[in-house]
Design a protein that fits this description.
With 517 residues, the chain is of the alpha/beta class. It has helices at 2-13, 33-41, 49-59, 74-85, 102-115, 133-141, 151-160, 176-181, 185-193, 210-219, 230-233, 250-261, 273-285, 299-311, 344-351, 371-382, 394-415, 419-431, 436-448, 468-487, 495-516, and strands spanning 64-67, 95-98, 124-127, 146-149, 170-173, 200-205, 224-227, 238-244, 266-269, 290-293, 316-319, 334-337, 361-367, 387-388. Helix 15 (344-351) links the parallel strand 12 and strand 13.
Length: 517
Amino acid sequence: MKEELRRENLEEILTEEESKEAGMRYQDADIDSDILRAVKEMGFETMSPIQERAIPVLLEGRDIIGQAQTGTGKTAAFGIPMIQRVEPSLRRLQAIVLCPTRELAIQAAEEIRKLAKYKQGIKVLPVYGGQDITRQIRSLAQGVQIVVGTPGRVMDHMRRHTIKTGEIKMIVLDEADEMLNMGFREDIETILADMPAERQMALFFSTMPEPILRITHEYQTDAEYIRVTPKEITVAAIKQAYYRIGKKDKMEALCRLLDYYQPVRSLIFCNTKRMVDEMAEILKDRGYQAEGLHGDLSQHQRDMVMNAFRTGRCGILIATDVAARGIDVNGVDAVFNYDVPEDIEYYVHRIGRTGRAGKAGRSFTLVCGREIFKIHEIERICHTKIRERKLPSPKDITRVKCGKIFSEAVEIMEQKDLQNLKEAILKAVEENEFTLLDLAAAFMMMKVGEEPEEIREEQFSVGQRRSPKQREEKEGRSIKSRRGDETHYGDGRRHSDRRKSERKNAERRNSARKKSF
């Protein structure tokens, strides 16, 4: 009941008309009926932009270069043609998908399994580091048509000859730019060099660094470039806002927003691993259920954090952009950009975590100083509007917290027998000089805490003009400051008077020297 109330509160705040343009229908493409049955069961009716452009090309057997972010449906974009190309009766490896992280490999394998549900005989296996390799070897020996794995573990199996590439029909590099950033370039090139000459290849990525261009030139043939622009992938259901905050007040502002909107599940993005760790500790100390995720965590630690987030034991996940790759958790109510992302593509990637499947979502960005220029650049390139908002006031925070406590109290009154407690309270009121209202207010303060202090938001963005009065006040302060600097020396004289005196003394000394000669 508490989660439902919190969701209703968030959805009330996020009231917005949903707009959704219908795309191409799956049945209008040349897709097998068994796959269409699975797609319908998964609840999909029309294709996303990347699916609409990539599926027909891949079904023709051509290579593609696809630029799109996670959350745009690209797993189905390559998964559907891949399943259609696989021969179920041939119990040998026929397709490989390479992913940068264990989480993304598991997620992609699960998605492909769902799409292949009614294609009898097709087996999909994720292979990745951190899992006992002998278990994977046994599964491969039983006959697997599709492998989804990380480059390092796929290389291990190739060296052991437990993965044989002789009958590969299709290979996909998912999040290829991240694999290169993580140092998998040599592994990728070794894997690609071992592929049959007659095979199909698809690359998907968010940004296009130079090494990707070299891979496409060397290992693809007449590949079609498909780019889903930020305009196409901006989700209409996401309400975007930014707040201009002094750097020292960012943490307090973040907590203010968490307390006011009370998202059940939220993601906070930082640009550095160190900031992720610091924020996780600070939020835990303040009573929030928060965990951090970044590349320095062991696989066991990553699994524990993600399980806690998925199951709801942890309502706040703090992550870097690279560590968040492959995270696909339903029901993320809000995304917080504690740091403005360095890359504009990352902004789209971040906010795409919320507002999925037509549900309401919200993104908050904390902006300091010159970062306002980055916000304007994001608006221009992504064809979106990020509205400037004022932080909730201390009274707003108190009101929301009280509302939450009242809801919890009503639930307890409906479910529990409070007779003994009522008698104890009445006795306390009779024995002391206070009223029931005084007692209730004291109990409420124990739960709510002191009213937070005001946070002074940044008054001016860089380059913003001041009013004539503000300029006059600033200039007046500067003149006064300069005068104050020169007003007094050690003996009470002005700097200018002292300089005049020093010049006269120097002239007298020079005159005396001349006379002595």
